[in-house]
Specification:
The protein has 377 residues and is an alpha/beta fold. It has one domain. It has 8 helices and 14 strands. A 6-stranded mixed β-sheet has the order 1-10-6-9-8-7, covered by helices on one side. A two-stranded antiparallel ribbon has the order 2-3. A hairpin with a 4-residue loop joins strand 8 and strand 9. Helix 2 crosses helix 8. It is globular.
Length: 377
């Protein structure tokens, strides 16, 4: 049974030499972002060199696809001295959102707040601006080129699924009709891009280690049991993936709710995110953030024998109390009824995020880091 005072420090991975592992741990509210990397082989891609390499598709052996090198300009490179996680949300209704809800058919009902009746769309027009530097604007073609002949897998719970769907929506606009497919093989979803011989995947594994909540749809149990030293079952499904992005947090909390109420939701009703339309201003750490767990996690990562990056996006996400689905989402697979929406104290969801929205920024950060690594390789 889960020890409430412990974290999964016994978890082991089996990295291979030729892949990058990205561990992503968003907090349920603020979305704590843990990004760890093992360098992926990019020997055939040299930035700023105009060369053309023919690559074979592993799914269509007889077809060849032209590889176009990525030209990374100086203004797309994040300065080494810049902490992209310190900054502020700025209003931008010119270049944001990066895509429209009604133009991306891959979003599940849980995150389509506009379609579900949310009256405002202001949450879609906030851009994260780091202090002293800029994030590169997301370029779908460059992202796909970096994913050419590779697999990107997001591993975690429904919050992680939101990041997976965000990434699919960010790239799907530049993919030709008929050149992509979606495969659902629970507990996985696979978005396959044929032209780039690439896939973006999602894998349900809320604890990362083996647990009795691993079923993709039937995971609500009274007492959750985990095997702290067992990752083998899941590892078999992510073995061979080039880029792994892990996420977990709320599943390790000892209470079934996040402690983010009262003064943090000043504009809300009955102490939750209902009716919130503006981000929090100024320096802020939400009460849902456990800084002790963050410290332990950082210590564990520093002891690992692989190159792991900790990208803590908790604080920047916790400013966005306006970005949650509130009463415009689902509960147990069904949209809330009108009667349920009238009782936000009982039914408002202040954990999941509307899309387009905050998870797009997580992917912009991921894109920026991958682009930086690509240029430096």
């Amino acid at each position: 049974m889960l020890n409430l005072d412990s974290t999964p420090t016994n978890m082991t991975t089996h990295p291979t030499q030729d892949r990058r592992i990205l561990f992503l741990f968003p907090l349920a509210l603020g979305s704590f972002f843990l990004l760890g990397t093992v360098r992926v082989l990019l020997d055939n891609l040299k930035n700023n060199q105009f060369q053309f390499l023919w690559q074979s598709s592993f799914s269509r052996d007889n077809n060849k696809f032209l590889r176009v090198p990525i030209n990374v300009t100086l203004d797309e490179v994040i300065e080494e001295s810049c902490n992209v996680f310190e900054g502020q949300w700025v209003w931008d209704n010119v270049t944001y959102p990066l895509y429209k809800e009604d133009t991306c058919p891959y979003l599940v009902k849980q995150v389509t707040c506009q379609r579900n009746g949310r009256p405002d769309s202001l949450y879609q027009n906030w851009r994260w601006q780091p202090h002293g530097c800029n994030l590169p604007r997301f370029n779908a073609l460059k992202m796909l080129e970096m994913l050419r002949d590779k697999r990107l897998m997001f591993i975690g719970d429904s919050i992680q699924r939101g990041m997976f769907e965000s990434m699919v929506c960010l790239v799907q606009s530049v993919i030709a009709d008929g050149d992509h497919s979606t495969i659902r093989v629970p507990p996985r979803k696979i978005f396959r891009i044929e032209e780039f011989n690439a896939s973006i995947e999602y894998y349900w594994a809320p604890f990362m280690v083996e647990s009795i909540s691993d079923h993709a749809t039937n995971h609500t149990v009274l007492k959750r049991l985990v095997k702290l030293d067992s990752v083998e079952k899941h590892r078999k499904l992510w073995e061979g993936v080039d880029i792994l992005v892990f996420e977990s947090y709320v599943w390790w909390m000892h209470k079934p709710f996040i402690n983010a109420t009262n003064w943090e939701w000043r504009g809300g009703i009955d102490g939750n995110c209902f009716n919130e339309t503006q981000p929090i201003r100024g320096p802020y750490w939400g009460t849902g953030s456990n800084l002790e767990i963050m410290s332990i996690l950082k210590d564990v990562i520093n002891k690992l024998q692989i190159n792991v990056r900790l990208l803590n996006i908790t604080q920047l996400s916790e400013y966005r109390k306006d970005g949650h689905t509130s009463v415009f989402g689902e509960r147990r697979g069904k949209l809330l009824t009108r009667q349920q929406r009238s009782v936000p104290k009982a039914y408002a969801d202040c954990i999941h995020w509307c899309l387009p929205g905050v998870p797009d920024t997580w992917n912009e950060l991921l894109y920026g880091i991958l682009l930086q690594d690509y240029r430096n390789h």
